[in-house]
Amino acid sequence: MNILGIESSCDETSVAIISDDVLKTNLVSSQDFHKKFGGVVPELSSRAHLQQIVPLLRLALKESKLELNEIDLISATAGPGLIGAILVGFIFGKGLSYSLKKPFIPVNHIEGHIYSGFLMKEKPEFPFLVLVVSGGHTLLLVVESFSRIKKLGSTIDDAAGEAFDKVAKMLGLGYPGGPKIQEYAEKSNGSKIVFPIAQLKNEFDFSFSGLKTSVLRFIQKEYGESSAIPEKELFDIAEAFQKTAVKSLTRNVERAINKYQLNSISLVGGVAANSFLRDEFTLLGKKYNKKVVIPDLQFCGDNAAMIANRAKNLFDLGETFDLDYEPFPSFFSKYFQ
């Protein structure tokens, strides 16, 4: 079976093809021009998707040595995300399905991330714990099967990736903030700055708004209205923030490991590209003798391989969808218990 995946939920246009469970190609076109605006501009994102999607499809077919009529199943992200951006890939996928008379499967973007570990040679083993960390979502879940996901906790305010971006902006490091925070944190010789971790009623929930505010108050107290923070101190602030943010995440993971019977743990989403988080997550797996699955960097950010992969799961479950199906605004689907 040749499965085409399309991803266009935010600022990456991606097309992937999986043939007989082998990933043939996973093309991603990133919209770097958003940097000058300090964040993603939805309308510009949608226009860029329109420009990139057809050339990417042609290149994906070429790299896979396939003709368009050899595609057996078409899938596209149906949400959540920027609605204009989603519609580009979603309607394009439905149009291909109609013209080729091939089945179409809409895929929940978050489910794509959740099961992205199955793109690796070493795959998660059910039941597994998954930490989803991205610019828009922070979730802790127990995944019991391809059709059953139990939510343990989520962020009550900012997502982890959003906090990285906002703190980077405070420090004048630019957008996207995650890579810059990591880069500056790695240059610190060991920060003595301490930021608090939120204490919440639900032991598995997350909160990053207070941490973000603590960083802002620290900057205001130490430097007033001046934006000229010495470079060495930028390193220390970035390191202290990153350490606290990662501890906020791994603390809840450790709690869940101690409470639930799990065969493996997995870290997914855009923030899973952070090397310090990957290292700390791996150490938790070693500490509790749990199999750790963290996707390669190409599968951490938004990508179509995870969409095609999830579509294969849904197809195998016997799911079918007609072309009247509409994009959905919520990341919760019927598979969330």
Structure description:
By secondary structure, the chain is α/β, with parallel strands linked by helices. Helix 4 (160-170) packs antiparallel against helix 7. It has helices at 42-64, 83-100, 109-114, 160-170, 177-185, 209-223, 231-259, 275-287, 304-316; strands at residues 2-7, 12-19, 22-30, 73-79, 104-108, 128-133, 138-145, 148-154, 264-268, 291-293. The chain folds into two domains: 2-114 and 299-316, Nucleotidyltransferase, domain 5 (2-Layer Sandwich), CATH 3.30.420; 123-294, 2-Layer Sandwich (Nucleotidyltransferase, domain 5), CATH 3.30.420. It starts with a strand and ends in a 21-residue tail after the last helix. The mean pLDDT is 95. Strand 1 (2-7) and strand 2 form a beta hairpin. Helices cover 41% and strands 19% of the residues. The strands form two sheets. Strands 3-2-1-4-5 form a five-stranded mixed beta sheet, sandwiched between helices.
How would you briefly describe this protein structure?
This protein has 337 residues and is of the alpha/beta class. It is 41% helix and 19% strand.
Mean pLDDT: 95
Query: How would you write the strand order of the largest sheet?
Result: 3-2-1-4-5
Percentage of residues in helical conformation = 40-55%
CATH class categorisation of the largest domain: Alpha Beta
The structural domain count equals 2
User: What is the alpha-carbon Rg in Å?
Assistant: 20 Å
Question: Ends: how far apart?
Answer: 30 Å
CATH architecture of the largest domain: 2-Layer Sandwich
Helix count equals 9
Low confidence ranges: none
- What order do the SSEs take from the amino end to the carboxyl end, as H and E? EEEHEHEHEEEHHHHEHEH
Write out the CATH superfamily name of the largest domain: ATPase, nucleotide binding domain
Percent of sequence in beta strands: 15-25%
